[in-house]
Design a protein that fits this description.
Layout lengths: L5 H31 L3 H25 L19 H17 L2 H20 L5 H50 L3 H4 L1
Helix pairs in contact: 1-2, 1-3, 1-4, 2-3, 2-5, 3-4, 3-5, 4-5
């Protein structure tokens, strides 16, 4: 009896593509959006988290060279430990949870990381311990980076809110001071 199905193969095929290249693109998109929102330090934190996790994962894989499970369903690189897909996914979702700071983002981070761990194991691309290692590596690196960036990011966010509030008030004052058409005619 097999545990494979076409539906789960398709779902996990999507997660396979989304897990590494897709997540790295999302890191860049979030960093660019933060730059546009005038939060350069948060953008650097986001980009640094993605880059550090990818580099650390690849260095560990090259050093450990743990063999992958046999009969891998998807194309993989060398070295099984730690899982790069799980590490990059967990890093991205943790960065979003930290920056947004809402309960739903933390729940998304947990569920998304678990989904990627299950996917990599289902596709026989990793052993379960590889996925746990990827999750732990990403969480540790992102949280260490956050220690370095948190004060400046919190201040940056506060300053951006103050600027937004000031601009809103200025806009309201301009509209209130503008002559109304009904009074002019």
């Amino acid at each position: 009896m097999t545990t494979r199905s076409q539906f789960w193969d398709a779902v996990n095929g999507i997660l396979n593509v989304a897990g590494y290249p897709g997540i790295l693109v999302l890191h860049v998109v979030i960093a660019a959006a933060l730059l546009l929102r005038r939060r350069p330090h948060a953008a650097v934190f986001t980009a640094a988290a993605g880059a550090v996790v990818v580099m650390s994962t690849q260095i560990l894989k090259a050093g450990i060279l743990r063999p992958r499970p046999e009969n891998t369903v998807v194309l993989t690189d060398t070295g099984s430990y730690p899982s790069g897909h799980v590490a990059t996914t967990a890093a991205f979702l943790l960065v979003v949870a930290i920056l947004v700071g809402r309960v739903w983002t933390w729940l998304l981070a947990v569920l998304g990381s678990i989904a990627m761990m299950v996917s990599r194991t289902y596709l026989q691309a990793h052993w379960l311990t590889d996925t746990v290692g990827g999750l732990c590596l990403a969480a540790a690196l992102v949280l260490l980076l956050w220690l370095a960036y948190q004060n400046i990011c919190i201040q940056e966010n506060s300053d951006a809110r103050r600027l937004l509030t000031w601009k809103t008030r200025a806009s309201r004052r301009r509209r209130a001071a503008a002559p109304k058409e009904s009074e002019a005619g």
